[in-house]
Amino acid sequence: MKRTFSSSENDHEEVEKETKKTWFQVEKESTNDIFSFFVQSSEDEKNQTFFSKSDNCKQLSAKQDEISEQFSKLSIEKSSINIEWQVKRKPSSSPTSLTPSIIAPSSDVDDVTTEKMREADDIDLLLDDELPELLGCSNLLTEEHIRKINDRLPASAVGYPWKLTYSTFEHGMSLKTLYRKVEMYKDERRPCVFVVQDDQSHIFGCYCSCHPHRSEHFAGTGESFLFKLSPSSQSGFYNWTGDNSFFMKGDHDSLAFGSGDGRIGLWLDENLLNGSSQPSKTFDNPTLSATTDFTIDGVEVWTLEF
């Protein structure tokens, strides 16, 4: 008796059309050996596939260790970036490969962007609030006072250093001394910031387009203005109204800023000891001092160095 590995004879012609088959016959005593041969061949093929895959995994693991070692040598801030392993799939004929990818977490990106925006905003604020350079030390003005005055200056006067030309704390209480200290600027028509403090610590003054000096007529331009800085709850700036041109007038015994209808916006005596302030038509200002008549505690004149 013989064992045959084939299709049935009735279907032989049909099968032959679809695909070629090999027919062979073996002795009965050899069938068991042949069967064992096929089983062993099938197991060898499986083992070969397994070991091939195992070798690939070992190679991948070694490659991954090598890449990890390389990345561990890099100095990377943990807060800014994160290293993740991403699996990139390749065609089915190739094994899966692991490649490193440096990814910035979205939260960190948002934080960095926000920080950049804050830095930009801070820079804009610094540019907007930049204070002028002071050539001298003030006993009356704070940074906030200087910033407020600087914000009100005409465009032509912004960005220049302020030089302390006269101070009662350094040069004594005298209008004559004041005139002498600023006389060199009289013909140059440089503007100045004139600051007064009364005996109740109210701080006020005038920005004038020229320096105080003796003259027969009022001097200055419409860029002049009166101001009050302290107390802060009463601070204000009072520009030229256009009603008259009584900006500033200096005499040997007094100095006045703003006038009209017999009232003077700011007036100081020759010894710089007493003063007065009233509403004026020139600037439409209120009384700048604590009381209409006051005792002077200090005066400073700051020249804008063009």
Structure commentary:
The structure is a single chain. The chain is α+β, with helices and mostly antiparallel strands and 306 residues long. It has helices spanning 12-18, 31-72, 106-128, 143-152, 168-171, 175-182, and strands at 3-4, 25-26, 82-88, 97-103, 134-135, 162-167, 192-198, 203-208, 225-230, 236-239, 248-250, 254-260, 263-269, 274-276, 293-304. The strands form 3 sheets. Strands 5, 6, 7, 8, 9, 10, 11, 12, 13, 14 and 15 form an 11-stranded mixed sheet that branches. Strands 1-2 form a two-stranded antiparallel ribbon. Strands 3-4 form a two-stranded antiparallel sheet. α4 links the parallel β5 and β6. 25% of the residues are buried. Mean pLDDT is 77; it is low at 1-9, 74-105 and 123-128.
Approximate helicity band: 25-40%
Proportion of β residues? 25-35%
Report the mean per-residue pLDDT as an integer.
77
Largest sheet data:
11 strands, mixed
Q: Show unreliable segments.
A: 1-9, 74-105, 123-128
What's the total helix number? 6
Quaternary structure of the protein:
single chain
One letter per element, helices H and strands E, the order comes to: EHEHEEHEHEHHEEEEEEEEE
Radius of gyration: 48 Å
Shape: rod-shaped
Structural class: alpha+beta
- Got a strand count? 15
Distance between the termini: 126 Å
Short description, anyone?
The protein is of the alpha+beta class and 306 residues long. The chain has helices at 12-18, 31-72, 106-128, 143-152, 168-171, 175-182, and strands at 3-4, 25-26, 82-88, 97-103, 134-135, 162-167, 192-198, 203-208, 225-230, 236-239, 248-250, 254-260, 263-269, 274-276, 293-304.
